[in-house]
Specification:
The complex is a heterodimer. Chain A contains no helices and 11 strands. By secondary structure, chain A is mainly β. In chain A, the strands form 2 sheets. In chain A, strands 2, 4, 5, 6, 9, 10 and 11 form a 7-stranded mixed sheet that branches. Chain A has a 4-stranded antiparallel sheet with strand order 1-3-8-7, with no helix packed on it. Classes of the chains: A mainly beta, B mainly beta.
Chain lengths: ~110, ~110
Amino acid sequence: DGGITQSPKYLFRKEGQNVTLSCEQNLNHDAMYWYRQDPGQGLRLIYYSQIVNDFQKGDIAEGYSVSREKKESFPLTVTSAQKNPTAFYLCATGLSSGGPNEQFFGPGTRLTVL
Amino acid sequence: DAKTTQPNSMESNEEEPVHLPCNHSTISGTDYIHWYRQLPSQGPEYVIHGLTSNVNNRMASLAIAEDRKSSTLILHRATLRDAAVYYCILRDREGGSEKLVFGKGTKLTVNP
C-alpha cells in the first residue's frame, strides 16, 4: 500500500514543549516537503528536502527544525521558539526534477498547543 | 513568486459543468500551471497541470489562454464529492526547489 503516512492525526501539547511530527513515505520520492496551514488560508512552506542529508528553509522556517537521515522519513520538530504553533501540518513528496511533476500530500497532523 | 488570483467562492448545482477561473498575469515562460484541490480536513490532491496547450484527464480539463495570463479549470459534471477548495498554482522553479506557492483558493460549493 503506497503512500504517505503522518502520525498522529491529532496532537496536543503544552506551551513551551517541543514536539516532533512524523512523516514517512514509501513512494521512493527524493523530495519531501513540510507545509503549514492556518484556518481559511492556503499552505505555506516550512522546510523541504530534495535528497537525503540535505534540506532547505522555506518561507516560514523560524521555530521549526527537520532532519533527513533516510529517504523514507522527514520528521518536523516544532520548537518552543515557534510563537504560534497551533495549525494543520502537511507533509508532501515529489520527484525532485522536472517542473511538471506533481506533489503528493499526506493526511496531515492537526497540532493544538494549549 | 508568481501570483495567482482566484475568486474566493463559487457555487454549482450537481451534474452541471463548473468553470473555475484563475488569473496569473505575471507568469513566466517556464512556469507550469497546476491545480490542486483540498477536501475538508484532508491534504491537497493533484488535479491537473499544463504549460501552453489545453489538457484533459479523468478528473477535469484545463483551458489555458493563448497569452497564458489566465486559465480555467473545468469540471464537466459536478458531483457532491467535488465540493472542495481549489488552488491554482504556478510552479516556482527558482533554485530547483519546485515549491508550490498556495493562495487562498476558490471554495466550491455543490448543491444537490
